[in-house]
Every structure is written in structure tokens, then in C-alpha cells.
Design brief:
By secondary structure, the chain is α+β, with helices and mostly antiparallel strands. Helix content is 14%, strand content 18%. Among the domains are: 208 residues, Jelly Rolls (Sandwich); 111 residues, no CATH class. Strand 1 and strand 2 form a beta hairpin.
Amino acid sequence: MVFTRQALALHVLMGYLVVAPGISLAATVEYNLLSASRLQLSGSAGWLGTQIQLTADERNQAGGVYWRCPLEITDKMSFAVELEFRITGEMGTAGADGVALVLQADQAGAASVGKTGGAMAFGGVAPGVGIEFDSWQNIHDPNDNHVGVVTSLAPATHLAVSEISRDINDGEHVSVSIVWSGDSTELTVHVDGASSPALRTPVPLSTLIGHVGYVGVVGATGAARNIHMLQRFTIVVSGMPDSDSDGVLDSCDDDDDGDGLLDEEDNCPIDSNPDQLDSDSDGLGDVCDEVEDGADADADDDGLTNAEEVRVGTDPNNPDSDYDWILDGDEVSDGAGGNQDGDQFIDALDSDSDGDGRLDADEAGDLLLETPPVDSDGDGMPDYLDLDSDDDGIADRTDPCPTVKDNGNDLDRDGIGDACDSDRDGDGVGEDGQVPDNCPSVANPQQRDTDLDGIGDACDSDGAGFVDPASRPKAPRLQATSEASGKGSRAGSGLRPSRAITQGRAAGGQLGAHGIAAKIQLADRGAIPADYQRQRDSEGRKGLRGDVPAEPDQPRRPQKTDRLLVDAGNTLTSEGNTERTWENSYAMALVMLGLALLFWIIKQVGR
């Protein structure tokens, strides 16, 4: 699909950018970036004729090309990118690693280059988002040909992923269309002109990288290798300002208003005023001065005068020009010369002032302009300027818990460290939820706990067996009343065996444990420990008789009630019938003696 500026309008139809002939939008521009002058090559990338070779046929290469005109990411901006690339080389379809479209706000800007291999030349370029066309299957990938969305801080974790039906490193041309709509945040990817998208998913770019970002294409190799050639790179942008309607976005235009004065010298850079009249001498030209009230005027009440804001490039009518919830005045006078990371943006216009890969909006601490930015380690430097916000020796750029001291562990590899992750094992059951995870360090989304000891089967040292003795509820002590002998014992717990117990005794006076357990009548539920009763009630069990039916097609599992009653039966046997022990032994001896005598008589008669 070829876009032309003269015949293009942006319509979001089922998440896809379409062309409406005969309609034009003033703020829509198209660039063929391979013929544009504002390109920045980095890493192993280099020109090869009219194409850009991102990587040579060598191991551990990382190369990219970025457009040096930043995109202003708002809900009014949308873009469509067309790429054509070709992956060849000696290893053919066994090679690696692929090509990606990247949007990033790294402190190195357009000169950024990421890590090799599975990081796809954008891992570590932070903050950033990559739409990868991956030709190598790493452990976290569905196959060796897929399109996925990942962040540069966690390139191994897909925000969305879909398989591609062809080998993208087969030496043939691959064409892709990538469309992002600001109002819906929806990203749509089409491969080789297919009518159905290969991937469609919401991607909140302003949340992930801030309100300013660079767009580029990168490629990488690792232990396996390929040649990655970029043959087409065009972009259509809608919803960004072009103040003088000259077909050049303000972010690329040195004279936004076309009045003949460069923006850095113009007291109204986006409103044409060749005469530069400034009646109240406040630094703002009359044509853009909303409140003419003198040289010390501060129209937006951000702590900077209008004249100061014109000088540094912030918006005199917006107290937070970069939308990071920190006042422009605080960022300009933050003690770091107003540019902590020394990049091309002052802090008041930089979405990541310290260049640590964490957005200032995230590090500010809240969404209130009037409150000071948070300082996690109390060292006097707010987190948005501090490269190690929690002072744990791990730089924020690589710290999975940047505001909590930790050892850097991330069990489920979700980019959130264990010390600040409410779901360390990533099984969807939070450790701080109403129902806490019964195996916080082992993924077990079903939370199966066969022996009901509060420890999930997945991490229970005794598996699904009987309750661990240390954690088993104490059984109530049961005293027996012997109906046969008429000798009773104190019913200390208020529990009394039924007639079935007496009848269930074996010839030697022994009690059949399961026969007793099934018949014991518990007259006083209050004898059961309260915590055990609550656990039983939460399981939805009926009573304490041990007669809960088994799950369909499953053998009935031992219940805690069964064991409780077995314990009760054993207690009854050992304590309630102590006085019958010798009597039973004597009776058994007489029976054995009688049998022996009968056997001897039969033998004698037979002779």
C-alpha cells in the first residue's frame, strides 16, 4: 500500500488506517525516510547504495536507523509506517535474529543502539517499545517466525504476540504495514499485504515511553547470524503540528511559523510575527501573549516568567510542558543545570530527565503538580533525577524494584522485582489478595491443596498426603461410656459414643477405625477449634461427618474430618477402654487354649 500526502485522510476503521481519495488533512505529512536528510545511523548499520544494511553476516551485531524528528505522542496523533526488508545470509532460515520498528525516548535519542541477540538491538534502549519481526525462537517465543510487541526494559516479555505463517528470513522480500491510532491506542500490523492483520492490540505509547519519542528500525544477530537489509521506510503522521502548513512537521522545522526567524530567536515561535512586537516586555510577542501584564508575568503560574519560558523553550501557557506531573519551574531549577542527563532535551521537556529508562511521570510519585516529586532514599535528590532511587546499588535502569531496596531477583521475569511484586510467581494469585497465594514462589493458579494444610500441592513437602503433624488441628478428646460393662468415664468434652460404637468392637475389643469414624455423633461443634471450623465452613463442607461426596470421576480424597474422627476413635480406644485391656487379653488367651485343645481331641479321634 502506498500513501500519498495529496490523497490521504486518516480514518480508523476497525483499527486500520485507510486512504480516502480526494480528502486531505492539513496536519498529515508523509516522509520517505530513506531519502530524508534527518536520519541517524547507529551500531553496525550502514548505507549500501540506497538501502541500509542493519547487520552484516556476523555474530553479535546490533544496528539501527532513527528519524531525528521526534514524534509528539498524544491522543490526537496517529501514524502509519511501511517497511520492506530482506533477510539473507549463509545460515538462511536457521539464522537470527530479526528486524523491529522501535519507538523510544532514550537519553541518546536518535543515536541509540541496543543489545545484540534476543534483545533485538532495542533491549536496553529505554524507555522504548518494539514491534519485532522475530526470526529466532528464544525460550520465551512461540516459534521462530512471529510478530510481537515488547518493551525495551523487558524484551523477553511479550505484551502481545502472534505467529507468522512464512519464514521471514528465507531471502525473500518482506513488506509490513504498522498503524497506530492515538485516540484508541490500537496498534495494527499487516504482513505481505494480507487483508487480515497479523496482530492487533492496544499499545499505550504515552504511558510506556512518554509524550516524545523517536521512531526507527533496528536489526540484530546473536550466536546465529543473518544479513538484515532495510529497503523501504516511509511514515505518514497525522495530528502533529505543522504551524506554517509547509509540509514539514514543527518537530522537524527550524522555523515553525515561517516568519523568517529561527525558532530559538522567535518570541512567538509558532505564530508568525516578523515584527516581534512585545508591548509589555515580558518575552512573549503580542500575537501569542495571552495575558499582557509585564516583564515579570508568569501566565501559567509554574514559577518561570513568560520571558524565561520563551528562552528555554517551554510553553508559557502550560505549567507542565512535558506532561510528567512536575512543574516546569521545578525542572528548570532542579540543580542540575536543567538537563540532568545532558541530552538534547532540557528536563522540563524531557520525559526521562536522568536517562535511567524510567519515565519522569512514573518517578514523580503522584499525579499532582502541587506536590514535590518523591525521593525514595531521602538523599535530597528526587527519583526523577536519581540514577539509583532506592540506594541499593542497583541502577534504576536495571533494577526491577527501583524504589524498594532489593537483590534484583525477579522470579517470574515480568520486569517487576520480587521485593515489590504482589504476585512473585506470576500465576495470577496475588500474595496480598483476599485469598493469599498458598505457594507464593511456585506458580499454581488452581491453588490445589489436597491435604488442606494451607500449603499448595505444588510446594508441599509431603505432597498431597495427610496433614503435617505440626499444622494439624488438635482433635477434641473423647471419653467413652462402655455399655457392655456398665463402667462409664467422665464425658469431659460433652461427647458420647453411640450404640454403634459399642457394637462395632471386634472380638478382641478393638475398634474398627473407619467404622467408628463414620458413626461418631458430635454433639458439641464448639469443641472443634475455631480456626479449623472456619476453614471447613469456607470450603462449603456440610457438617463434620466426613461424608462429603467425591468429585466426579475422582476417587474420594481423605478429608480432614476423617482424620479428626480417626484420631478421636484412637483416643477412645486408648483411653476409654484402658480398663478392658487385660480382660480382653485374658479372653483371647482362653479362646486360643480352647482351639488348641479342640485340635488335639480331633487328632486323637482320627487315630
